[in-house]
């Protein structure tokens, strides 16, 4: 297999950014198998920095070891409610420093998003039997200063760094509400924005509740002047979906057969849920130097300017099961995986389809089945990922998206 390489960005002729719209027609187009193939790593377009309003972004903080969360920005819930509430959207203070944005459609589907973290804590799609079912898994723990910290759900881990110099920026935990669009009869869009105070980078994130899906779309722009010769930026992004299941022993991943995989250590962020004894439970054959190599290929790889040699880029194996049982503790990154695959939970008699766009790799994690059914660790994690960063020149934009589709409507 050819080694992974970092693609060089080329400017596109567009004068304005492609809007991150998520109409039902748009999502149907994105889920079309005609658009699922190809090896293009990213869509790059020219774009201006977004105009942030409603909440000033806090300075970005580096992720600290041990899941320590950065101090949250102050959210003016009264202002947000007066400016954006209505038409299926409501606002509610949470924990004194956060705000829950609640979306509800007329078909019964609901979703909740936290500000300023941008974490989606609940997604309850309408089901064929007339009720709604929660498909996301979350835990609430005590964080620094005694404030509650929510983990799990749907999170975006976005990191940017100058390609020729040290230092980096991440909007994680510092998203601002930019706009609310749509109606409960069609779809509801929540647009978030963030901009670095000391770096030429701006990001947008649109979370859209559809009658049949929940989408998360991200765009990152290198806002450096086009005349700057050494202003290339490396962008790395991943999305984690903690899916609620009865137990991993009753959970299967459909559609991964033939995909290359690498065994890795679990992705760590302030929103990750990792059992304390996971390391002992995993005992995967790929443990050791190979796992440590891939586990370290996150932000450190971007700051160092690239990955290892071709010999180290070889996969650990090829998935030979199209009905992958997730009963054992496992953590893998799949390459050459289909753009859409399905998680089936036979215990809850539920399934969720994940479609990705703009990402070449797929992250799959199971804590194992030794824990209590329907308990704290009754979940699996899936999401689009990158093994190599995307390079953006001045004025260029990378876009990526995922769609959690409910096939049970």
Automatic annotation (TrEMBL):
Gene3D superfamilies: 2.70.98.10. SUPFAM superfamilies: Galactose mutarotase-like (SSF74650). InterPro entries: Gal_mutarotase_sf_dom, GH-type_carb-bd. It comes from the Eukaryota. PANTHER family: APOSPORY-ASSOCIATED PROTEIN C-RELATED, PROTEIN NDH-DEPENDENT CYCLIC ELECTRON FLOW 5. This is Protein NDH-DEPENDENT CYCLIC ELECTRON FLOW 5. It comes from Urochloa decumbens.
């Amino acid at each position: 297999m050819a080694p992974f390489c970092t693609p060089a960005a080329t400017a596109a002729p567009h004068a304005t950014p492609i809007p991150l719209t998520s109409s039902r027609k748009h999502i149907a187009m994105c889920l079309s198998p005609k658009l699922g193939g190809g090896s293009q790593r990213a869509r790059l377009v020219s774009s201006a920095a977004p105009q942030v309003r409603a909440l000033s972004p806090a300075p970005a903080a580096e992720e600290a070891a041990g899941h320590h969360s950065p101090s949250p920005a102050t959210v003016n819930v009264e202002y947000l409610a007066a400016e954006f509430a209505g038409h299926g959207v409501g606002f509610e203070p949470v924990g004194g420093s956060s705000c829950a944005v609640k979306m509800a459609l007329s078909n019964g589907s609901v979703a909740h998003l936290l500000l300023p973290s941008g974490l989606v804590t609940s997604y309850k799609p309408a089901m064929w039997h007339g009720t709604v079912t929660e498909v996301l898994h979350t835990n609430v723990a005590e964080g620094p200063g005694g404030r509650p910290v929510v983990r799990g759900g749907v999170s975006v881990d976005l990191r940017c760094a100058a390609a020729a110099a040290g230092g980096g920026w991440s909007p994680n935990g510092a998203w601002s509400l930019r706009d609310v669009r749509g109606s409960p009869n069609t779809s509801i869009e929540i647009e978030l924005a963030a901009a670095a105070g000391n770096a030429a980078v701006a990001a947008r994130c649109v979370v859209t509740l559809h009658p049949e899906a929940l989408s998360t779309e991200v765009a990152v722009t290198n806002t450096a002047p086009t005349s700057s010769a050494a202003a290339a930026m490396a962008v790395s992004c991943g999305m984690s979906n903690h899916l609620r299941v009865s137990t991993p022993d009753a959970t299967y991943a459909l559609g991964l057969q033939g995909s290359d995989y690498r065994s890795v250590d679990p992705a760590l962020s302030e929103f990750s849920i990792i059992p304390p004894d996971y390391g002992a439970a995993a005992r995967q054959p790929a443990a050791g130097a190979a796992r440590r190599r891939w586990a370290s290929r996150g932000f450190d790889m971007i700051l160092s300017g690239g990955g290892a040699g071709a010999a180290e880029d070889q996969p650990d194996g090829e998935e030979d099961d199209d009905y992958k049982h997730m009963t054992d503790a496992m953590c893998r990154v799949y390459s050459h995986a289909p753009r859409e695959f399905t998680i089936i939970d036979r215990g809850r008699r539920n399934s969720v389809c994940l479609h990705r766009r703009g990402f070449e790799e797929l992250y799959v994690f199971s804590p194992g089945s030794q824990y209590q059914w329907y308990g704290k660790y009754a979940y699996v994690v899936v999401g689009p990922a990158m093994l190599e960063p995307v390079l953006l020149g001045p004025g260029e934009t990378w876009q990526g998206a995922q769609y959690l589709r409910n096939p049970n409507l």
